[in-house]
Write a structure and sequence with these properties.
By secondary structure, this protein is of the alpha/beta class. Helices cover 36% and strands 23% of the residues. A hairpin with a 2-residue loop joins strand 6 and strand 7.
Length: 398
């Protein structure tokens, strides 16, 4: 059994924690932007393949306290690096972060820890020079209040890189953040979802993948796949095979993605095609002022313009008023909006039921929840039955 940590967006730790628990693994502790859990080698592989809201997965090599660079060197050298790194492994500290700690220089932390690792490996492998011609072993270090966590980066590239978003619109939202915000809503595959500012199509694509039970890591590779002594190839192969069998690509949820710019809509559709969910989403070039729907109890989930340039800022009040008016005209709907524009409640004409601070990249934003009424239980059951019956008919026709 190993200890893993899944870094995630600040403020969304509970969402990531729930995902890990749903995979069947025990969460040992939660810190700001990090969720620790216990598991075997299969846990590391499945976490990379399945987690929608984590930024990456790290295998904890060790934790210790260090208030001086000498302590950092000695404690790093004391870790059993030879149990993880082969003699030809290419290893380095790819990133170091420090918060409220006496050691605060990332470059110094990286340099000293690399030297300490080399010293340990020299003794273990009886080498003076390491070829570093083998697999890459990126190491990430986090120091919080002088407590150092050292982890092997199993993911390599961040988990938000699913492999489908080749075309990116202005002010995009990452796939992991979109998935986490979707999980903060009560939306399910039998309910309507509309994004009137779809941009790259990320909200709609993440919703479609979730509805189809499509694991987000199926179409990409991970650093740990090159470490068969720790994570045998069989784990990845069997994991992918089982996850593919669990997918239902015949499902047709009511997911709609609009944008005023036809080129943006085309790019979003191309991204959905790469993700394998194009048939599950209705894309259309449409102004937000034309947003309407005949059905009740739907959801708006969107990332509207923030107005980073002056001329854009001047247009924001009218834009958000229009969105608020169209939302008010939708009977029994709920709206969930992430934005850095602080006039949203005034222009919407109502106070949000809840808002939470979220960092979209380096930008501080807020996620506003304008909740509508819950559908009657009988209606929910009817919709679930209709979705199941439609799926059954499609399967029979297929």
């Amino acid at each position: 059994m190993w200890t893993y940590v899944a870094p995630c967006h600040f403020g969304l730790e509970a969402v990531c924690k729930r995902e890990i628990q749903n995979l069947g693994y025990e969460v040992s502790r939660v810190e700001d932007g990090r969720v620790f859990f216990e598991g075997d080698a299969q846990a590391g592989a499945l976490a990379n393949l399945c987690l929608r809201t984590a930024e990456r997965v790290l295998l904890i090599v060790g934790e210790f306290t260090a208030t001086s660079y000498e302590e950092l060197f000695e404690a790093t050298k004391a870790l059993p690096w030879e149990a993880y790194l082969p003699r030809d492994g290419r290893f380095w500290v790819s990133k170091a972060t420090s918060i409220r700690s006496q050691l605060f220089s990332p470059s110094d932390i990286q340099s000293i820890m690399k030297k300490a690792m080399v010293e340990r490996m020299k003794r273990a492998y009886h080498l003076t020079v390491f070829p570093e011609t083998g697999a890459a072993f990126p190491i990430r270090v986090g120091i919080l209040k002088d407590k150092v966590s050292v982890g092997l980066d199993l993911s390599g590239e961040s988990l938000h890189k699913r492999g489908y978003r080749k075309l990116v619109s202005k002010a995009p939202i990452t796939e992991t953040l979109a998935a986490a915000l979707l999980d903060l809503t009560p939306w399910r595959a039998d309910r309507i979802l509309v994004d009137p500012f779809c941009g790259s199509g990320t909200f709609a694509i993440e919703a479609a993948m979730k509805a189809a039970g499509m694991a987000p890591g199926l179409k990409r590779s991970f650093a740990a796949e090159a470490w068969p002594h720790l994570f045998p190839e069989k784990l990845w192969h069997e994991g992918r095979e089982e996850l593919q069998e669990q997918m239902d690509l015949s499902i047709r949820p009511d997911i709609q993605a609009y944008d005023i710019d036809p080129e943006v809509v085309k790019a979003a559709r191309d991204n959905a095609r790469l993700a394998g969910v194009e048939e599950m989403i209705h894309f259309q070039a449409r102004d937000v002022k034309d947003l309407s729907h005949s059905k009740k109890y739907g959801f708006i989930l969107t990332n509207p313009p923030y107005g980073e340039r002056l001329e854009e800022k001047e247009a924001l009040p009218a834009l958000y008023r229009t969105l608020g008016e169209r939302f008010a005209a939708l009977d029994s709907w709920s709206a969930y909006v992430i934005t850095a524009y602080d006039g949203i409640e005034k222009d919407f004409g109502r106070k949000a039921d809840k808002n939470r601070k979220i960092y979209n990249g380096m930008m501080k934003t807020y996620f506003y929840e304008f909740r509508g009424p819950k559908p009657p239980l009988a209606l929910s059951r009817t919709r679930e039955r209709d979705v199941s019956e439609a799926d059954r008919v499609r399967a029979t026709e297929g």
